[in-house]
Amino acid sequence: MNTVRYELLEGDDTGIARIMLNRPEVRNAQSVAMTYELNAAFDTAAADDNVKVVILAAEGPHFSAGHDMRDRAVMDGHDTVGTWCGFDLPGGEGLFAREEEVYLGMCRRWRDLPKPTIAQVHGRCIAGGLMLAWVCDLIVASDDARFVDPVVSMGVNGVEWFVHPWELGARKAKEHLFTADEWDAAEAHRLGMVNHVVPRAELETFTLALARRIATKPSFALKLAKLSVNQTLDAMGQRVAIEGAFGLHHVAHSHNQLRFGMPVDPSGLALPPRRPRPSSGEAI
Ligand code: ZN
């Protein structure tokens, strides 16, 4: 693996696997190759009966800048995780298949991994970066973490794994999408999107301690507890809602392709640096 590092922890941390996003030179932007390597790492953790908890963390100053927009790699050569095909066909047919496979399909698999997962987030977590954090069961953020989905600025409804209303609540999800403001870790914690916020220097040790506590529990009960919560979300309609939003996401891609000759509105790619969201009480 080149873009992802897989570590089996030892000693007091036995039973914990740590997956590190490892493209710090591009702020861990997710290329197709990285997505498949990340998938392989999750599969390795799932298949190892000695692993009870998985931490997803990142090298470099930021968790993830999102999808690698410059990556135009063909899909040939990867063992696909879904049943879609025709990934490199022209028009909406290829793009839909590609995003069904590498974004929606992957996120579904990772969200349903039958072991507790913890995202350890620091620095910026942008668009597709949110998808990686959101598929994990728990999120621990450092106090320097920043979260934003700026995809509406690019003429699309939001990232492909559309769980914003579940993560932020409906009204705050709308504000987050409409404004594309960057929200800090404290705000994400207040909204319930993040389990804990800790100083940057304590992020790794805090996350490990949390994983260690979870790893003392019986593995089957952990799997069943996770499945029970995920089944509840499905019963509440989460899966159907995600798929509905994914369909609208592709209406937007097709609209932009017709209007601008590319799947996103190019004016959104050239926005000035996003300003942080004003704290409560300001600018009202
Ligand atoms: Zn898309």
Radius of gyration: 18 Å
- The N- to C-terminal Cα distance equals 49 Å
Structural class: alpha/beta
**Topology order in helix (H) and strand (E) letters:** EEHEHEEHEEHHEHEHHH
Low-confidence stretches: 278-284
Q: In CATH's first tier, which class applies?
A: Alpha Beta
What spatial form do the alpha-carbon principal axes imply?
Answer: globular
H/I helix tally: 9
Please estimate the helix content. 40-55%
Strand order within the widest beta sheet: 1-2-3-4-6-9
Structurally, the number of domains stands at 1
Largest sheet: 6 strands, mixed
Count the E strands.
9
Structure description:
This protein is of the alpha/beta class and 284 residues long. It has a single domain (4-268), classed as 2-enoyl-CoA Hydratase, Chain A, domain 1 (Alpha-Beta Complex), CATH 3.90.226. The chain contains 9 helices and 9 strands. A 6-stranded mixed beta sheet has the order 1-2-3-4-6-9, with helices on both faces. A hairpin with a 7-residue loop joins strand 1 and strand 2 (16-21). Helix 1 runs parallel beside helix 2 (91-111) and helix 2 (91-111) packs antiparallel against helix 9. The structure holds zinc ion (ZN). Zinc ion binds next to helix 9. Zinc ion binds at residues 99, 160, 249, 253.
Topology at a glance:
Elements: E1 4-8, E2 16-21, H1 32-47, E3 53-58, H2 91-111, E4 117-121, E5 124-126, H3 128-134, E6 138-142, E7 146-148, H4 164-168, H5 170-179, E8 183-184, H6 185-190, E9 196-198, H7 203-215, H8 219-235, H9 238-260
Parallel strand pairs: 2-3, 3-4, 4-6, 5-7, 6-9
Antiparallel strand pairs: 1-2, 7-8
Helix pairs in contact: 1-2, 2-9
The chain binds zinc ion.
Residues 99, 160, 249, 253 line the site of zinc ion.
